[in-house]
């Protein structure tokens, strides 16, 4: 009989351990859901904050350029010099140049600015004027420039 009592105790201990493990997993799952909710809500605030005030909404400028083949390296070097100064400007969120993998002479300049005022000030900087002067004869055809704003602002 002493043996069966010991087995009951062992069974009870095993059941308690299983319940404890399940409770830990339950609490861990709840914590993950709560944390995910916090991350998603702050992400949502960030996404919509670019549109809350039209005078301070982000502006994206995309500029497609076709560079003459003999100037591809020189163009990339000139852009890199300008970028080093541009990314330090107040209001610059992102400033990059992308080259087509299919045609090495096709480039996309993508600029993101905190607002229209920051973009306008960038247009007056010495380093941008220097880039424009250095590269004015490097292009093959006209450029395609488009400006975008937060889609929510267009409602």
TrEMBL record:
Xref: SUPFAM superfamilies: Dimeric alpha+beta barrel
Ranges for domain ABM: 59-148
UniProt cross-references to Pfam families, sorted A to Z: ABM
Listed GO MF terms: monooxygenase activity
Keywords from the named record: Monooxygenase, Oxidoreductase
Gene3D superfamilies cross-referenced by the UniProt entry: 3.30.70.100
Top-level division of the source organism's lineage: Bacteria
Protein name in the entry: Quinol monooxygenase YgiN
């Amino acid at each position: 009989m002493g043996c069966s009592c010991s087995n009951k105790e062992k069974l009870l201990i095993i059941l308690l351990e299983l319940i404890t493990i399940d409770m830990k997993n339950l609490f861990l799952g709840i914590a993950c859901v709560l944390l995910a909710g916090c991350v998603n809500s702050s992400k949502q605030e960030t996404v919509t904050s670019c549109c809350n005030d039209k005078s301070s909404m982000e502006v994206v400028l995309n500029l497609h350029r076709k560079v003459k083949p003999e100037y591809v390296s020189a163009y990339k070097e000139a852009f890199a010099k300008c970028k080093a100064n541009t990314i330090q400007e107040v209001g610059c969120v992102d400033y990059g140049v992308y080259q087509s993998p299919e045609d090495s002479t096709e480039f996309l300049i993508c600029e993101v600015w905190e607002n229209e005022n920051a973009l306008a000030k960038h247009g007056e900087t010495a380093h941008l004027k220097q880039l424009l002067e250095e590269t004015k004869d490097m292009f093959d055809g006209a450029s395609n420039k488009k400006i975008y704003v937060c889609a929510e602002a267009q409602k």
